[in-house]
Each structure stands twice: as structure tokens, then as C-alpha cells.
């Protein structure tokens, strides 16, 4: 079975094999966050015209928006698709991040992504087991609702990620130098303290660890 074959690969080899196995039916999802350059560099080496879906929630750091353009130019990515919540979703979301962050993420991320990925069979993402918080056993290939999710860097350690940045002279997200090891929306992201996991600065002080785009099976997301 093709998925079993893909599951034995990782990194660039997994991306290339996935694109070959599902021609015209693969997209990449990227936050253009702290470690995104590593995955996007591998994608660009395989096919710089592969669709890269970027969720602009309306609450991103200005530095993230600037970084997106910098990486797009540097890597030669020619098909970045910017996805945003509708006006009604933005209005309802308002400042729900203060009182109901799950609903805020649902409106700003889950629903827009569900619309954007319609028509794709495979989504490539940059999740890693090293991030912890429920990702410790993340497979490189998994079925999620109506799509197949491929995580080429799932097994990569922090050291491997750092080595890729160095080997390819990849630019860093501007906020990494300020202690942000994972970058999401500005109201719900803080710098990571020494010794904390990379994603400890996301929704700090709450039990929330995921926005929902990787936990709600795609093809099943709907407004509530």
C-alpha cells in the first residue's frame, strides 16, 4: 500500500515520494513560524510551485507577515495561497481569545482551512514529535478525515532542525531572537522560558495546546 511505503520515508524523500504518488493533489500548510523555513526549503527543492497554504488569522505578528515574504523570495516559492477568515468570522471572533480561545481558533483557523483544502487529497505539514504536548508519537503519515496528512519532519530532533538551518543558511523568524520558539497569533503567544518545550509559549497558563487544525479531522469541520 502506498501509505505504508511513504511511512518508511522522511524529510525531502518523503515529500518527493508524496508529490509523485499524488500528482496535482498535494498542498503544504505552513504558519511561516519559528521553524517553518526547514520544511519550506525541502518543499522548494522538490517543487517550488507546490501550493503552500498560509493562514492569516488577522491576529498574526507583523514579523510573521514580513517573514512570509522573505521566505517566499528566498526559496522561490511561487504558489503561496493566503487564506483568511470571512468578515463574519472575524467579527464573531473579535477578542474571543480572551474568553474562549477554542472558539476563536475555530473561527480564525479551522473553518478557513477547511475551505482552503477542499480538493486536495494530501496535506504536508511541519509538525514534529520533539514539540511534545501530545505530538510525542506523531506518525509521518496519517489519515485525517477526508485527507492524508504527511509530516516529513515528525521524527526530526531539535538538533537536526538546527543543523538544517545552518547547512542551508536559512533565515530565522525575527521573533526567534526574542525567545519565541513557536510563533502563533500575538495575543496567545509568549517567549519560551529556558528549559521549556518549544510550544510552551502557546496559550500559556491554560490547558490548550492545539488550535484545532491538526485535531479536527478535515472534511468534518463545520460551524457550531
TrEMBL record:
The lineage of its organism: Bacteria, Pseudomonadati, Pseudomonadota, Alphaproteobacteria, Rhodospirillales. Catalyzes the formation of sulfite from adenosine 5'-phosphosulfate (APS) using thioredoxin as an electron donor. The keyword Metal-binding applies. It is found in: Cytoplasm. One of its GO terms (cellular component) is cytoplasm. The keyword Iron applies. This is Adenosine 5'-phosphosulfate reductase. It comes from Magnetospirillum aberrantis SpK. PANTHER family: PHOSPHOADENOSINE PHOSPHOSULFATE REDUCTASE. Signal peptide: none annotated. [4Fe-4S] cluster binds at residues 104-105, 185, 188. Keywords: Cytoplasm, Iron, Iron-sulfur, Metal-binding, Oxidoreductase. InterPro entries: PAPS/APS_Rdtase, PAPS_reduct_dom, Rossmann-like_a/b/a_fold. Belongs to the PAPS reductase family. CysH subfamily.
